[in-house]
Design a protein that fits this description.
The protein is α/β, with parallel strands linked by helices. It is built from 11 helices and 12 strands. Strand 1 and strand 2 form a beta hairpin. It holds the Pfam family LysR_substrate.
């Protein structure tokens, strides 16, 4: 019959993983309506409904599960064959240098590193902090940098990784803890603790400073756990990705407040030079790091 193509299998796999058309569309760098049209065309050709639409959530049907199972087997085998051929042709030794703009990324990167090391045990993977990532990439200090910083540079391109919500984290004794949503004025007179200095703190520069907010004190501490301990003691508040403090929120040790109506979200990216020629193993690392890196962490 020849109805199913590789692109269809990738589509079904992405939709079952994300359960959301918008998030799946971002994986393929296409619009949500375009991906929705592809799904409708596939269902029409198969004569079967593969997903039930429930609000924004996509629920896989029995027929959809059959396609998903086939997709997982076929795509896994294709990836293996491609890697084997690439290793035979190009070899599997070398180095990949990854810069991290935010130390919180070290919470989910180890899982990616383990997978990569299993596939390429003779490739050296070097990780380090990158606070000036444009300069670092242009000087070839790193092959790619993981950052949530807005990218607008003619020599750079990127792969989208994920979005997350930035929340104000406080102790139960802090006045902010009772508010599900906070606004700029709620930061007036508070002590704010950050991983980076004030001039490099995106949320302070783009959220608080433009509103003319005068905080009591701005502290820079480069250790996430030390910041958590200070916030937990009631010394001040901090702005963190919600996923990075999930276990403290779940245990009730900390409270989180969204920033404004609808919250503030950041998009994380793997950034690299447009002119960069990646060997096969670096392409594979980029694929791994873009393949839903927070899934395991968010399920914990």
């Amino acid at each position: 019959m020849g109805i199913l193509e590789i692109r269809h299998l990738r589509l079904i796999k992405a939709l079952t993983e994300t359960e959301n058309l918008t998030r799946a569309a971002k994986k393929f760098h296409v619009s949500q309506p375009a991906l929705s049209q592809q799904l409708r065309e596939l269902e029409d050709r198969l004569g079967a409904v593969l997903f039930e639409r429930t609000g924004k959530k996509m629920i896989v049907t029995r027929m959809g599960k059959l396609v998903r199972q086939a997709a997982e087997k076929v795509l896994t085998e294709l990836d293996r064959v491609e890697r084997d051929i690439a290793k035979a042709v190009h070899g599997e030794t070398g180095t990949i240098r990854v810069g991290v703009h935010c130390v919180l990324s070290f919470q989910w990167l180890p899982g990616v590193m383990r997978k990569f090391n299993n596939m390429y045990p003779h490739v050296e993977l070097v990780l380090n902090n990158s606070h000036t990532f444009i300069r670092d990439l242009k000087s070839d200090a790193f092959d790619l940098v993981i950052t949530a910083f807005p990218i607008d540079h003619p020599q750079m391109t990127h792969v989208r990784l994920f979005e997350d919500e930035i929340v104000a984290v406080s102790s139960h004794s802090h006045p902010m803890s009772t508010k599900k949503t906070v606004h700029e004025s709620d930061f007036e007179g508070v002590t704010m603790i950050s991983l980076v200095e004030k001039s490099k703190d995106l949320l302070y520069q783009y959220y608080l400073a433009p509103a003319g907010i005068k905080i009591r004190q701005f502290m820079t501490i480069e250790q996430p756990q030390a910041i958590i301990d200070l916030v937990r003691s009631g010394f001040g508040i901090a702005l963190f990705p919600r996923w990075s403090v999930k276990k403290f929120l779940k245990s009730g040790e900390l409270c989180a407040s969204s920033l404004g109506q609808g919250g503030v979200r950041l998009e994380w990216r793997a950034v690299y030079l447009k002119s960069k020629k990646f060997p096969v193993y670096q392409q594979e690392f980029l694929r791994l790091v873009a393949d839903d890196p927070l899934a395991t962490l968010l399920q914990q």
